[in-house]
Structure formats: C-alpha cells, structure tokens
Write a structure and sequence with these properties.
The chain has 205 residues and is of the alpha+beta class. Helices cover 28% and strands 29% of the residues.
Length: 205
C-alpha cells in the first residue's frame, strides 16, 4: 500500500513540475517596437526659447544679463498667438563689456540650424536710456500671455487689416518701470502697437 502511495505521489509531483516548466508564451516584439511617431515641430513662446539660450549664455559669462528677445519669421512657416518658430536674444556681460547674440530655432531653415546657435562676442558700451539689461527674475510673463493682453484691445484693428506682420519684442528702457513686451501688427508707420509689463502682465498705456 505504501509503495503505491509513494509511486502516485512521485507521478503527481512530476506532472506538477512538468506543468511549471512549460515555456512562457512568446512575446510579441512587434508590439514593443510600435511607438508613437514623433510629434511635428511647433512654434514656441518666448520664455521656452529664452531659457534654452540662457544656458549657454551663462557658460560664457557668470554675470550675463538679457538685453533683448525678439521673434523671427521662418520661410514657409506661420506662427500665431504670441509664439514663433525662431527667437533671437542678445545677452550682455558688464564685466566683459561684451554682448552676444544667440538664436533658437524650432526647425532648420536656410543657414540656421535647429536648436541654439551662439554668435560671436561684440563690444558693448553699456546701458542707455533706450536699451538696458534686465534681471531674469523680472521676466515673469510669457510672450503668448502678452499677446493675448494686447489682442483684446487690438482685435477690431487686426480684423480690419488682415495679413499684417506680427512682431514681438522684449526690452527694457527708461520709458517703462519694468521690461516690456512690444506686440505689433504692421510697422511703426502703419500698424498697431501695444506694451505689456513683462513682470506683472499688465498693459502699459
């Protein structure tokens, strides 16, 4: 009786181990390779481009300060809502008495590479009433928010003058107590221009 029990136990154990040692179901590697295609490039707001350029600017000079930030047109690309496909920033170093122009482009075009391009150093004579460096901490309001603020007042004019070029520019002058966004449709002779405090987001009159 004991032998039969022992043999049955061994057979049952072998069957159990045989079931556990079965090869796992094959993994569908094609599913792992299926990934979402890369998203197409999109225009960016000024702050995103600015901080991409600020990183290499800090490596150039520890006391670096922004002087200007401006949107740029890219052939064949249309940007709206306070964003742009390319931005240009000028940084200055008081200790070096130099300025550098940096570019940030979302796409490669003509002779401009995608990403950040650092220009050569140029002599900088210092701040003037029409052009003063400002602190990064003063740059709180993004270009798309400034655009929205100005567009609320400019909407009627813009609709009456379709196709006018949009320019967005950030600078600090004696005219305003803080860095200001300049949002303009058209040009100084035939256009609409609004100013927004880049620290508080309030429109300047």
């Amino acid at each position: 009786m004991d032998k039969r029990i022992l043999i049955a136990t061994v057979i049952a154990g072998a069957a159990f181990l045989g079931g556990c040692s079965e090869a796992p179901a094959p993994v569908d590697k094609t599913a792992e390779l299926k990934k979402e295609p890369p998203k197409p490039p999109e225009p960016v707001a000024g702050q995103s481009a600015f901080f991409e350029m600020y990183k290499p600017a800090r490596q150039w000079a520890a006391d670096v300060q922004p002087l200007t930030l401006a949107s740029n047109d890219v052939p064949g690309r249309t940007a709206e809502g306070g964003k742009a496909w390319m931005w240009t920033a000028v940084f200055v170093s008081p200790s070096k008495r130099e300025a550098r122009t940096l570019f940030y482009s979302v796409v490669e075009h003509e002779k401009v590479l995608r990403g950040v391009t650092v220009g050569g150093a140029q002599t900088w004579s210092g701040a003037t009433p029409k052009s003063k460096p400002f602190g990064v901490a003063e740059f709180q309001v993004n270009s798309d928010a400034a655009y929205d603020t100005v567009y609320k007042k400019a909407e009627a004019w813009v609709k009456k003058h379709p196709g006018k070029k949009l320019s967005i520019y950030l600078a600090s002058t004696n005219r305003f107590p803080a860095p200001a966004w300049y949002v303009m449709w058209g040009d100084s002779k035939s256009g609409y221009l609004g100013f927004v405090n880049a620290t508080t987001g309030v429109a300047f009159k």
